[in-house]
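The protein record now logged underneath.
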Amino acid sequence: MARKSFNFYDCYYEPIKNFNQIDKASIIIATIEYCLYEKEPDWLNEVCKFAFDTMKPRMQFDIKQYKNGCKGGAPKGNRNAENTTQK
């Protein structure tokens, strides 16, 4: 399932802020493709791959949160669901 948007965090920019423009662009494109389409980049050079791998845990967490949100939230019977329903 392809997403239509994602958050770009400061922790994504920090590892690449001192890279040259070509490497920055490569990592940003890889980040976009991973966050929106879950497409693993196999074309990054070693340095860019290392930077991407430092960002990957946060991207995976956000993808997991998105997928869980698509399921509709807390299941019925969950105490969290009870707190939001009006009686």
In short: The chain has four helices and no strands. The first helix runs from residue 10 to 13.
